[in-house]
Design a protein that fits this description.
The protein is of the alpha+beta class and 262 residues long. It has 7 helices and 8 strands. Helix 1 (67-92) crosses helix 4 (170-176). The chain is globular, with a radius of gyration of 27 Å.
Length: 262
C-alpha cells in the first residue's frame, strides 16, 4: 500500500525532540506555519460485511506553534520599534539635548556625558551613557546608598534627574541594541547580589530598558524586592502593546515627576 502526504509550509523553527514524526522541509504556502506534526497510528480493523480485516493505518497532520518562533518574532518587532522610535526621538529632541549638554558643561567642570559599566542582556556588560549629574570624583555607588548624595550633585544635577533628562544619551544605547525603550533598568556591575537575584528570576534574558514596569509603579520609592517582583511580572506579561502602555504611562510620570526621590 502506498501513502502520499502533501504538506505546505514556509517556515520551520527548532523544536525539542518529540516522538511524533516531523516534516521540516519547506514548501511555499500563502500562510506561514511554525511546524507540522505528523502522527501515525495503526490498529487492527475487524472484518465486516464485504470488508476484509487487517492492519489499518491512520495519518493525521496538525500545525503546532513553536514558542521559540513567537519569542523570536516578538524580539524582532520590539527591535524594529526601538530603532524607529530612537531615530525619531533623536531628530525631535536634538535641540533640547544640545542645550542640556551645554548646561552640564558650563555648570561644573568635567565631561558632559558620564559612562558607567552596566549589566545587559544575558549578563553581558556594556557602557551606558548619561548626562553627568554628579561631580567629578563622586563614589561609584547608587545614589540611594550614599550617606550625603547632595554633596556630590552638580548645580543642575537634581533638575536633570527629576525631569529624567539625564537619561537622554541612552538613545545611543538603544540604537546599538544594548538597551530597549522598555525593560528592567540596567544595574551596576558592582551590584553582584542583585545580579544573582535577577538571574535566578530569568530577568537576565531581557534587554535593559530606558523605562520599565517598576519605573511607573514607584521608581525610587520601591524597595529592591518590590522592583524584582514588578520586573518578574513584566517578564510574564511582556508584549508589544504592554510596552506601549508603559511608554505612555512614563510620559505622565515624567511630567508629574512622581516617584523621584533624588
Amino acid at each position: 500500500m502506498r501513502l502520499k502526504i502533501a504538506v505546505s509550509a514556509v517556515r520551520f523553527c527548532p523544536w525539542p525532540p518529540h516522538p511524533d514524526a516531523r516534516i521540516r522541509s519547506g514548501v511555499r504556502s500563502r500562510r506561514p506555519v511554525d511546524a507540522v506534526v505528523v502522527q501515525v497510528s495503526s490498529h487492527l480493523a475487524p472484518a465486516g460485511a464485504g470488508v476484509r480485516g487487517g492492519l489499518e493505518t491512520v495519518v493525521t497532520a496538525r500545525v503546532q506553534r513553536s514558542p521559540c518562533c513567537s519569542a523570536s518574532r516578538r524580539f524582532e518587532l520590539k527591535r524594529l520599534f526601538d530603532l524607529t522610535a530612537a531615530i525619531a526621538a533623536l531628530f525631535i529632541l536634538a535641540f533640547p539635548i544640545l542645550l542640556v549638554a551645554l548646561a552640564v558643561r558650563v555648570s561644573s567642570p568635567g565631561p558632559v556625558v558620564y559612562w558607567s559599566d552596566r549589566v545587559g542582556r544575558d549578563n553581558n556588560m556594556f557602557r551606558m551613557p548619561k548626562f553627568r549629574t554628579m561631580r567629578v570624583g563622586a563614589p561609584e555607588f547608587p545614589t540611594h546608598l550614599m550617606r550625603d548624595p547632595e554633596r556630590w550633585v552638580t548645580p543642575i544635577g537634581s533638575f536633570l534627574r527629576r525631569s529624567s533628562m539625564d537619561e537622554l544619551p541612552q538613545l545611543w544605547s538603544i540604537l546599538r541594541g544594548e538597551m530597549s525603550f522598555v525593560g528592567p533598568r540596567p544595574v551596576l556591575c558592582s551590584e553582584q547580589d542583585l545580579i544573582s537575584l535577577r538571574t535566578s528570576l530569568g530577568l537576565h534574558r531581557l534587554t535593559p530598558g530606558l523605562t520599565g514596569w517598576a519605573q511607573i509603579n514607584g521608581r525610587d520609592e520601591l524597595t529592591t524586592p518590590e522592583k524584582l517582583r514588578l520586573d518578574a511580572e513584566y517578564l510574564r506579561r511582556r508584549s508589544f502593546w504592554f510596552d506601549l502602555a508603559i511608554l505612555f504611562a512614563t510620559i505622565g510620570k515624567v511630567i508629574t515627576r512622581e516617584g523621584v526621590s533624588h
